[in-house]
Design a protein that fits this description.
Blueprint (H helix, E strand, L loop, with lengths): L2 H17 L24 E3 L1 H9 L3 H12 L5 E7 L3 E6 L4 H11 L17 E5 L3 H16 L4 E5 L5 H5 L28 E3 L13 H9 L21 H21 L18 H11 L1 H10 L3 H15 L16 H23 L9
């Protein structure tokens, strides 16, 4: 069960409780689920009971128990526990790995895209980047993230873009430059007080010598309030470089598809271990990371934090690496259903990595 599916399941439980008269509240438009905080347990948690307690006129613990009774046994949820003042914690495990993989392969690089931000801010989100290379790249990526969640976005810069920003960094703003620069007349209808200013901490040096992919990663990897490091560490081909790990993992996923085709088999979603065996812990970590991708995209867009996506891609890359040795048959071994399922899981991971890098404006090569 993905976070989006879990959110819908919780929302359905709230609606049922209202319809059956156990809660007297307005049903929220959506319910947020996230990894549990300190004191929590399981895979995900929600604070919806605390949010509904006051309008319901009931203690949060009572609201949580009402919802818990409706969530126990729901498809894809193996355990529901109430902790603290009323947090509802979930352990997911009822969804077969094949179902998640099929969903990723069906959606392709658009897996995780949604409509959570559709219609916000009067229908249009307006980003206005400072005339600084890091701000311009952040504005470009924030526009991609917001659009991935259904928002209509206009993005501009307070001054003309440098040619290197347009060409080498691939920045293409869809509004003319502002503040008296050519094309400003087209912006006369915009209320600048409602613009979202994009002003991350500037880079200490010119990132353009790093090239497009490494420069963008260097500017996006730290949180906006942290100063980026601009150096050759972003170019080295070793594990210490997070960008290399992400692109290497993607290239290995693609390479496994080619290798498997040479052996006469392809990806087929299913159980990655024989029926009588349990999935190893490493596989569970990868499945959770893939299932969490929609939530990460939504959070990165809502909080204007592309670094969240960058760090998630590193987590996916690190989680898929232990899978690689078990994907292809060894020696005289014949391809089995488990081999096909592991290959499908690797393809799903590669798809998430490619989609995430695309949103960051970074290439995902098939060969590295």
């Amino acid at each position: 069960m993905t976070p989006v599916e879990l959110s819908r399941t919780v929302l359905h439980a709230v609606r049922r409780a209202v319809e059956e008269g156990e809660l007297s509240v307005a049903v929220p438009e959506r319910v947020r689920v996230a990894p549990p905080g300190p004191g929590g347990c399981g895979d995900y948690a929600t604070n919806v009971a605390l949010q509904l307690a006051r309008p319901a006129g009931q203690p949060a613990l009572r609201v949580a128990e009402v919802l818990r009774a409706r969530l126990m046994g729901a498809g894809g949820i193996s355990e529901v526990v109430v902790t603290g003042p009323g947090f509802i914690n979930f352990r997911v495990g009822g969804t077969a790995p094949g179902e998640l993989v099929r969903e990723i392969l069906r959606r392709g690089e658009r897996y995780g895209h949604g409509a959570s931000l559709a219609g916000r801010d009067g229908g249009v989100v307006r980003l206005r980047a400072a005339r600084d290379v890091r701000a311009v790249v952040h504005g470009d990526v924030l526009a991609r993230l917001l659009r991935s969640q259904g928002a209509s976005v206009q993005v501009s810069c307070v001054g003309p873009l440098e040619e290197g920003w347009r060409g080498l960094l691939g920045v293409r703003f869809d509004l003319p430059d502002t503040d008296g620069h050519p094309g400003a007349d087209h912006l006369s209808h915009i209320d600048r007080h409602k613009d979202i200013e994009v002003r991350p901490l500037p880079a200490p040096a010119d990132p353009l010598p790093l090239g497009r992919d490494a420069a963008r990663w260097a500017l996006l990897w730290p949180a906006p309030h942290d100063r980026p490091r601009i150096g050759e560490e972003h170019l080295v081909q070793r594990e210490s470089n997070p960008l290399f790990r992400v692109r290497y993992a993607h290239a290995r996923c693609r390479g496994l598809v080619r290798n498997a085709a040479d052996l006469g088999f392809g990806p087929e979603p299913g159980a990655v271990e024989p029926r009588e065996a349990q999935e190893p812990q490493e596989t569970q970590v990868l499945l959770r990371a893939l299932a969490d991708h929609p939530r990460v995209l939504a959070a990165a867009a809502a909080h204007h934090a592309p670094d969240r996506l960058a760090r998630h891609l590193v987590a996916v890359a690190d989680a898929v690496l232990p899978l690689f040795p078990a994907v292809l048959p060894m020696g005289e071994e014949k391809p089995s259903a488990a081999h096909r399922a592991r290959l499908a899981l690797a393809v799903a991971a590669g798809t998430v990595l490619a989609g995430g890098l695309s949103l960051l404006g970074i290439d995902a090569p098939d060969h590295l």
